[in-house]
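G., before I forget:
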Amino acid sequence: MIVEGAPDPPPGDPSGPSPTCPVVIAGVGGQGVISLARIVGRAAVAAGLSARVGQIYGLSQRGGSVEATVRFGPGRTAFVGPGEAEVVVALEPLEAERTVPSMSPRATVLVNDTAVVPTGSSRDGGSYPGTESILERIRAVAARVHLVNGTDLATGTGDIRLLNTVMLGVAAGMGILPVPTSNLAGELERSTPARRSSATLTAFRVGLETGEGICR
Amino acid sequence: MSSPAAVSIGTTPTGADRRVLLSGNEAVAQGAVEAGITMAVGYPGTPSTEILESIGDRRDIDVRWSPNEKVALDVALGASLGGARALATMKHVGLNVAADTFMTSAYTGVGAGLVIITADDPGMHSSQNEQDNRAYARMAGVPLLEPSNSAEAREFTRAAFELSEEFDTPVLVRTTTRVSHNRGLVEPGPRGEPPVAGFRADPSKYVMIPGYARARRPVLLERLRRLAEYADSSPFTQEFGSGTDFGVVTSGISHHYVREALPDARILKLGMSYPLPMERIRRFADSVDRLFVVEELDPHLENDLLAAGIAVEGKAFFPQEGELDPDRVRRGFVAAGVLEPGPESEPPPVPMARPPLMCPGCPHTPPFLALKRLGAVVTGDIGCYTLASLEPLAAMDTCVAMGSSIGMAVGMAASGGAGAPVVATIGDSTFLHGGVQGLAEAVYSQADITVLILDNGTTAMTGGQEHPGTGFTLDRTETTPVDLVALCRALGVKDVNVVDPYDLAATYNALEAAMATGGPSVVITNRPCVESPTKVRDRAYEVIADACTACQACMTIGCPSIVWTDEFAEGRRKVRIDTLTCTGCTLCAQICTPLAIVPVPEPVETGHDH
């Protein structure tokens, strides 16, 4: 009566992804974090993988911080504990910094380069950390971090709302997700209304090409 | 005597892998569909909302929003007595509202199966408290099921209907936010055939006057005794692992956390956690040297086991506040001496916070700017507008429960200690949920208060659900909307005014006049939510950089579209408007004294749906 699964196996080869490949997706409410996680999860299932998606929404959707997690293969929950995330896709630099405690030493971290400064948090707006200092903190923990001009790429496709799709494409192009690119594309197509499906796939392709150009 | 075979959990069809990735909410709905419900009813509330939304387009099920959870449970109970299987859904605090019906439904029992979903919110992700609704099962004397993931959410919900009919009782199914929102694999089964049996009049069972209710009380207690027996041998109670050093009794998602922290530990998992399978627990306890309970929030299981004379340890190691997770469970077992401590690292500094905000163009914003300027004591309520309590608006003084704003305003004004005019602020959905009676009180006592009804035509906080004032049902069928103005007048409020909240001066003047009126007055704002049911996007505004004096008055709005620049005037930072997200509400332009905020020259393609 329960979807049974063995506990996560202990980490093996420290350079490669583990079978569960814990993924953290982070961003600001409205950037499409939740739908991105859902697409990755469904694409994994379509590819015959087991997957669990963790997500919390509600108040956080009003422009607050949003985080979702995906775990593949054996295991019981979608929870990504301290030091466990092997892939982090951040749609905003400050939100990338927020996930530092969950990053594994072998994590690959993708950071969209466009800051969304919290409104009203400071009357002079001066306390938002510089992107370089955020990257520095991530580098101190994770194996690889890549700054991606995702917002520009999405804007270039004509719809800034496709930032999440672009970033998914980058991750897929780099081959850091255990989900085949064809399944990700298929799930994107399935979950997008027909009138927007071509723009979505274009954004995904733009991301893919960018990702393929990044050396893992 | 009931046979455990009466309930068919674990009979998932096998064969080709048909499994789909469902949230716990979707899985609850799937289980109810398979159980053959003909009625599903609730009031929106995170984390429960998507249960009804995920089956809202089904023509073979009557899926509906009620004005509040009490009415929802009344409707569901009525449907059950009519012989139709019925599902009622709500968040944890919603069961407080429905508690009156819930308590006595345990006496009446059911016609066809009746299942109530309570979606608890440990950690208070989107709630005003983290009450542990397992207490309600005990208080009412109703069986409680706790699914731990999406697969169980489907199976337990389906089985709950069978239990409900087998034992003639409502069944409470408790999820928590992680179970409701997380997605896991579920193998869906076919739609059950709705068994509408018809109403059979039985006043001694359904008319709970004292004489009849007294006779139902022993029936309830005998039912609980049989349910406890059933729990001892039922498939809801499961054992995992091996060893005799220690064992863990747990339920719900805590079970998975324990198994992630201690993969091989002896575990007794309680799918039904009220009434408890005490004989099974006792045998389990006798088989281990040391017994733990791992449960989120309150020590329900722990106290029950202690009361039964079973030595157990729990809250000494596992926190009573907030959510558990594998890491917290691991730390608890380290503290208990079961696990070796792992490497401890210095926690990194916490990055700057990103508090939630009202949306660009939100029609709730201007009235709070006005109220702040008017110096009112503002009793608030539950909805997006509760965010007005935060900086920079900081214009709300209280928020407690759905509809509380009005009664609290009456009491605050009557206390003589408010020190300023008292204004209750409440959304349209919340007003129809629990505010109407408060307004009746204000009229009855001729309270010197103003009630500001923020009518944005939707239940916005939970994602934009219909309610009795919107003119549409859950499946977008047109219906007769409640007329808020006529309702307030009918209750006896003489001073009722409708104002356009995008006109800041008019809003200020309407509130000022209402606050100066003796007795109860009502001001209603009339702009729709900018996100639901349709996205409101008008011509965007921009800042003429040379004209901006950096007075920063527009920054008091808290609009996410107004952002800082790197230009300064007299040492102060200037602003600009993000024209991609600006909805053109004009509020900032209305308060910009140097007239530096103007419409963009040409209508821009915002890229948003209309």
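The beta strands of chain A are 23-28, 51-55, 65-72, 85-90, 103-112, 144-148. The radius of gyration of chain A is 17 Å.

More on Monday.
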